[in-house]
Design brief:
Number of strands: 15
Number of helices: 13
Largest sheet: 6 strands, mixed
Strand content: 25-35%
Helix content: 25-40%
Distance between the termini: 84 Å
CATH class of the largest domain: Alpha Beta
Radius of gyration: 32 Å
Shape: elongated
CATH architecture of the largest domain: 4-Layer Sandwich
CATH superfamily of the largest domain: Metallo-dependent phosphatases
Order of helices and strands: HHHEEHEEHHEHHEHEHEEEHHEEEHEE
Structural class: alpha/beta
Number of domains: 3
Strand order of the largest sheet: 8-7-6-5-14-15
Length: about 425
Amino acid sequence: MDKRTSLEITQYIKDTKTPEISWQDLADKIEKIYNVKLDKEKVRSRYRKKIVGKKLISNANNFEQHYQNGEVEINRVFFESEKPKTDKDVLRLLGYDENVWEVVLWSVGEWNTSMKGEDGQPIQTVNNTIKAKLRPKTQTELTPEEVADIFNNLIVKPKQIKQNLKKIKSFEQNRLKELSGIELHLGKMAWAGDTGQDYDKDIATNRFFRIVQEIINQQSIEQAAECLYCVGNDFFNSDTINATTAKGTPQTNDLRWKKMFGIGLELNINLIDNLIENFEKVHIRLQSGNHDTMSSFYLYMCLMQYYKDVKDIEFSTNYKDVQCFLWGDCGIFFTHGDSNLKRTIKSIPAEFYKEWGQTKYRELHLGHLHKEVVVDDESGMITRRVGSPTGTDQWHYEERFIGATQKYQTFLWDKAQGLKSIQYINF
């Protein structure tokens, strides 16, 4: 038997052998096709040594079932393969990307098989069967390398700063300008034919720059010494590579996730550059949203690194969902507001008991509902939901969440007199 014929026979055995075909039937087929006489033991030995010995996967007892919700059930037989010990091992052996798929459950079976070799001596082989249920990840995190790549390659082109109050005016040392997280939903796409108005990255960017200019205009009159700016609060419309929220709700976007993050970083650097030039000190805090839980955190960390050597800016390493900022007799509490509102209100005095005891004027500022709502719960704290400058998307239109003024609010605080004024930027 020449080498070419031997290779062809081996491939034929691999392609033909199933549980329904006996070794003798296979030997008879080989003799008929190739005119080579092999007994069933030699056919079986060739299968075990040439095919199983190379750790090829048998077609027998293998199946892969795909379901409408994206999940996959797999049963796969391996010969002389390593036994998986972790979810990563299972995904690697099955050939699924661990960055895209996650293991719901898995099990592995193992047994030894004994057979005779060509020399008549017994051969022991180990068979593994992996049964697994997989599902696509709905929340895929950026790796540290991806975050660094986005940050390092971003070209920041800030607009020209209109004025620099540090050079021309003195500041009111008792005053603080509060800038809640801008609920821009950058990346959202809406069409007037569906919702009555258009909204896309260009409209969002223009609204953002108008907010920046209005803040500078207000500051030229108010002359607050310090500023509090919260990062996040659904600044981004989605949180994953699949354009879903942090919990997996699909979104209609006009930006891919990398570009969305890059534009968002550029916009925030533009705003903070302007704040540094027009306030004595700038305080930056994290206000995570339910649309951008991860991406707002990445944005905050990038900004912290970008400004780490700037003396007039201060970041906090407190990353909790509910936070407090003290300004004299004022306690400014803030969170996104997608959790239970009543329990959130009741929990503030318990969680921030020291700050509560030091303050006389207290407000809790929330986002999430895209409209202004003021609640006085008679507990010594006013709860205020702030508006959003974002447009109406198809989901909000179909659910009839329409009619609220699209706006952004800024707050002026006095250390001894509490909240002095609220300024509205309407769209």
